[in-house]
Each structure stands twice: as structure tokens, then as C-alpha cells.
Amino acid sequence: MTLSVDEAGRALADPKAYADDARLHEALALLRREAPVRWVEAPDYTPFWAITKHADVLEIERNHEIFLNAPRPLLGTAEFDELNRQRAEQGIALRTLIHMDDPDHRVVRAIGADWFRPRAMRALEPRVKELAKRYVDRMVEFGGECDFARQVAVHFPLYVILSLLGLPESDFDRMLKLTQELFGGDDDELQRGQSNEEKLQVLLDFFAYFQGLTEERRKHPTDDLASAIANARIDGEPLNDFDTASYYVIIATAGHDTTSATIAGGLQALIEHPDQRKRLTENPELMPLAVDEMIRWVTPVKEFMRTATRDYELRGTTIREGDAVLLSYPSANRDEEVFDDPFAFDVGRDPNKHLAFGFGVHYCLGAALARIEVRAFFEELLPRLGSIELAGPAESIATTFVGGLKRLPVRYSLA
């Protein structure tokens, strides 16, 4: 069945479309070709402009003073947007870095920035490699068959980021469940419930946990990122409870869910492209390029929204003041004008100008850590891997924000 342009636009507001690669990329290719700046009216959603070309996503990201994150940083239903507006008025809304604009964004981002600089990443690398080995060893313990997405990929990055925060391992399973409920709110299997109240409760559970952590770290400061956040001061004052909890939430969730999606999706790509797995195994110096290709291929963050502060012309179309735009990263990362053979998985792709980490002032704080984790895992796995194949169908999360595989059954031989 051939999609119309209107149907292609509405696919961007359908969580199930992101669980169907063929359908999603058919829609995105059509929009890039025929309507790269497209007004989308989808049931239950406030209308928005869909931005699908790499150059246009870059242009909007560069113009961060014209296109703001607030008040609609993510795609949600009109009801969800209104609920968030009410929460903000009550002072109980999630307010992470992705919800902020300058000057707040600049000063709040600086709180955690030192923990993700190259020097800090080099210090963390031995721990990352140790954990990578632990989880590859665990694959051996599984006896040659496992659900890689559920049993390996979600746990390894979680341990890394929660170790950086300084959380006890006894709390890791709780954090995993809350993260999956938060990002899987549109997935029938992962969601806690379908109502906005049930989705709000997930957030409140996060806040309750991190409020206790903040109190503990303020009484007994430690040498970890959680303590740095808890004791941070802006203009001499500590962050309020919700801003502090919001900071923890974005680190603990985005810091592992995106990376686990890349690791699982990267392994699937290597299984489905055995020539590329062979090439990478025989040429391990390609690993840095391969990591970025896995990130481009998976693109775990599907979209961010921006709101225009004035009229702005893009490709001959006027985006009016107050209009929302959706930046489609999976589309930008398959743009035929930027990537040679964009639907080929190429572990030696160079250059690779993917936008999976965003661009400009909102460039992902944890990009370097994500690259280190993906690299460490596959540097441990590939030399030990004999054979590997799918042992059942792979399944993806239904989402419009962050996601990837939720199941990847594999059968393998591993030293």
C-alpha cells in the first residue's frame, strides 16, 4: 500500500510506527522527497510542522534563540500537553535539560558537565570495560541462547550510569523498571497503565526516590555525581526539589536507555549484515567508526520538539510564531543528500554526520560516555564470538520519543 503525504506525516505521531522500521522509513522517505516541511494534523495531537531533512534539523538546532525547547519539548497528545502545563503551574512538572532554554539551560547543564568531560571519561573507562566483560561473560553463562535485549543490553549501560551516580546495586532493578515505564508509556507491554494519572505516578515514584537520595547526599556528601547534583548551587542557592530530581531522572534514564537501544540494535545489524561483522572483527581499528554507524542506524532518540518565537521561513514555508516543529532524527540520519547509500549498514562509514546526539547548545551531555560504552562492549564481544544468529523475531518498543529493541532472541557460540 502506498502512503499519502498526510498519512506519512501522521505516522510521526503513531508510537506503533516506530516499532515497524519498514513503515516508518517509507513514511520518512516520502516526506523528505515530497514535503520536507509538512504541517501535520494527527488525531488527539496539537498540530505541528514535521522537519525531516538533515539540513533543516541542523538549521533549527543552530537557531536555538528562535526555536525554543519550552513549552513543548517532546511530542505528546494535546491532553498530555495540557496536563504538563497544569503541572508546571503547580510546580510539580519534570524540568530536565531538554525542557530548558538559556539562560537556565546553560547554568544547569554546567552542574554535571565536568563529569562527562574527556578526563572524567578516561577515568571511568576501566569500570566500563570491567562491566562489559561481566555481561559478555554472562552471555556465556546463558549457555548459547538468550534474549539479548532484555538480559544483556538493558543491564550493562544501566550499571555504568548508576555507578557514576553512586546508587547502590540493590536499587538498579527498581531504576530499570521505572525507566522502562517512563519511556514505554505508549507500549502495551511496558507501560504501567494507559491513563495520564498512571503515567504521572511513574514520574512521582522517580521523584520520591531521588528526593530521599538528595537528602542523604546533602547530609553525607560523597564523591559521585549524585552528590554533585544534590549539593549544586546556582546564585548561591541549591536547586529546588523538583529540579534536583529532574536532573537525576534525565541522567539515570537517558543515560542508559539510549545506549542499551544502540547496543541491541547494533548487534542486530551485525547479525543481519554478516559481511560487516566479519569486516569489523578482522579490522578492529574500525570500531570507532562502527560505533557511530550503530548510533546512526538505531537513532534511539526519535524526536525533539521546538516552538518558534517569531515567524521563520524554511524551504519557502513560513513557520508562524508559536508553531511547534518536530525534528525527526531517524529521518535526518537517512537523508540521501548527506549519506552515501543511507540504508546500507557500513561499519567503516566516514564521514558520518549523524544527528543522533542533536547539535549545538543541546548536544547530548553523555555522548562521549555512550560511545565508550558501545565500543567497550563490542571490543569485548566480537573477538570471543564464534557464530551468532537470530533465535526468533526481534521486537521494538512502541514510542514516539526514545526506544529501540525490547526483544532480540539470539543463538550463539561464545568463548
Please, could you describe this protein's structure?
With 415 residues, the chain is an alpha+beta fold. It has one domain (5-414): Cytochrome p450. It has 16 helices and 14 strands. It has helices spanning 5-11, 21-34, 54-62, 78-90, 104-113, 118-141, 148-153, 155-165, 172-183, 196-219, 225-230, 241-272, 274-282, 287-298, 329-332, 367-381, and strands at 37-40, 48-51, 67-68, 145-147, 233-234, 237-238, 303-308, 312-314, 317-319, 324-328, 385-390, 395-396, 405-407, 409-414. A five-stranded mixed sheet has the order 1-2-10-7-3, sandwiched between helices. Strands 4-14-11 form a three-stranded antiparallel sheet. A hairpin with a 2-residue loop joins strand 8 (312-314) and strand 9 (317-319). The protein is globular and about 60 Å long. Keywords: Heme, Iron, Metal-binding, Monooxygenase, Oxidoreductase. InterPro entries: Cyt_P450 (IPR001128), Cyt_P450_B (IPR002397), Cyt_P450_CS (IPR017972), Cyt_P450_sf (IPR036396).
